[in-house]
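cache lookup: miss for this entity combination. No prior model stored, computing from scratch. Input as submitted by user K.M.:
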Amino acid sequence: QKEVEQDPGPLSVPEGAIVSLNCTYSNSAFQYFMWYRQYSRKGPELLMYTYSSGNKEDGRFTAQVDKSSKYISLFIRDSQPSDSATYLCAMSGGSNYQLIWGAGTKLIIKP
Amino acid sequence: DAGVTQSPTHLIKTRGQHVTLRCSPISGHKSVSWYQQVLGQGPQFIFQYYEKEERGRGNFPDRFSARQFPNYSSELNVNALLLGDSALYLCASSGTGTGDEAFFGQGTRLTVV
């Protein structure tokens, strides 16, 4: 079993829809959670950073962390075709600080 | 304000050759980490450096080595290249590398033929 599970998709939604992306994890020591957006053949771009449990909002993006369920989510409101990309969750904590990644979800926003 | 810069952006090497990849972190950041990303997968941790000291090493063979310089830039070296080393190599920059935000460069795409 992988430490971080993420549905690879693809997830296809119409423009303007609310998108929900999520990851589950098994290591209870994780306490730093990040969401990245990656366009094809480019480096990951940090979208959201959350420490421990709770919600964080930034523009059209909302990140949620539920440590009791070992479940994190990213919501995108008013989705745009330019949001089409692969979204990766990453997390760290415990005795080392390397990022442990999900496999990424490919998101397609249809005009 | 310059972000994380990596060089070169693309590279083609022959099996058995050696390669050096370079990374300059964001100004003021003291930690650099290296990751390997194979197509369709999430990145895999290779090394982390902080203040020129190796802080962590992933599950990669000894053919992979790295170092960090006094100006906090870093090099990743790979010896005796294999076809399976073909991947996108990513450099992450963070202030301390202890759970703070990590920012990535555009990556170096290495193709081994």
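stored under new cache key. Chain A has a mean pLDDT of 95.
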